[in-house]
Amino acid sequence: MTNLFNTRPKKFGPGSRQCRVCFNRHGMVRKYGLMMCRQCFRERASQIGFIKVRAETSCSKTKFSLWLFPSLHRLFVYPVFRRELSAAALEHRRSES
């Protein structure tokens, strides 16, 4: 009898995703659309633009590492800066009239 299970390619779930570098299916980093396994991410993190930061909490004195992506943080800061500019522009318009 032929094998009838898994005869079609998967479109969802962990079996449908693979690393874009080494085609591994384990340890996927999917955040920000990276679609890389964790080993390939660690090798290429600095080339992509991630910065590893050592952090320490004050209450429990535990140390941990964070990967930061500076350009993504600029995207979150930009709308606040734009609001400040628009508020300054409104004040300038009010002072002119």
TrEMBL record:
Its cofactor is Zn(2+). Keywords: Metal-binding, Ribonucleoprotein, Ribosomal protein, RNA-binding, rRNA-binding, Zinc. One of its GO terms (biological process) is cytoplasmic translation. PANTHER family: 40S RIBOSOMAL PROTEIN S29. Belongs to the universal ribosomal protein uS14 family. NCBIfam families: PRK05766.1. This is Ribosomal protein RPS29. The lineage of its organism: Eukaryota, Sar, Alveolata, Apicomplexa, Conoidasida.
